[in-house]
Design brief:
Elements (H helix, E strand, L loop, with lengths): L9 H18 L6 H4 L8 H24 L5 H21 L8 H27 L4
């Protein structure tokens, strides 16, 4: 069964993932530090929500890119490791930014969020394509 849209262009998923990683790199600069964004009035912790959202998207994109482009076994584990390594590198990057601080709790939140993005992608994939075969 042929898939539609982006599924016909597996390399595009790789580019979207790399592009999203670049967006995260920019968001990790001093321009988006807690000091500069603390005055945003929001009923919940917007910084925590941002971490959750951006890494959920990263997990989703990376999972789809790996699924469509690589014949590896254990794709979920490999994708999760890629996301964890990126979260670690992101916090290391923040450590060297003047107004930022790398924190272990952020790596944990980012990793858990990416895992849920991977799970969402897998559920969407199974429902859209695997489920239609029966």
């Amino acid at each position: 069964m042929k898939s539609a849209g982006l599924e016909r262009h597996p390399k595009l998923w790789l580019w979207l993932t790399v592009w999203w990683m670049a967006v995260l790199f920019v968001l990790s600069t001093s321009f988006f530090s807690a000091e500069l964004t603390k005055n945003i009035d929001f009923p919940i912790n917007i910084r925590l929500l941002a971490h959750i959202c951006v890494y959920l998207v990263l997990g989703f994109l990376a999972s789809r890119a790996v699924d469509l482009n690589f014949p590896w076994k254990n794709k979920i584990l490999i994708t999760f490791l890629i996301c964890i390594l990126y979260a670690i590198s992101d916090e290391l990057h923040q450590h060297f930014e003047p107004a930022r601080h790398g924190r272990l709790i952020d790596v944990i939140v980012d990793s858990v969020s990416a895992f849920f993005g991977i799970v969402v992608q897998r559920l969407v994939y199974q429902k859209r394509f695997v489920g239609k075969r029966t």
